[in-house]
Structure prediction request, 61 residues.
Amino acid sequence: MDRGLIGMIAGMALAFAAYFGGFGAFLLVAALGALGYGAGSWLDGGGRAHELRALFERNRR
Prediction:
């Protein structure tokens, strides 16, 4: 899938959430979509679980 199609699908999902669920549902769908996009990009880049743990430990200091 190219990025234009993915963007269109995400926009349609946000529009349905806003129309049927209101602004709170819109924000929830947007936040979960961003989280899913970030996780997918990290996994596509060859991310490993120990790298993620190290990232969280570095941010806690």
Remarks:
- The chain has three helices and no strands.
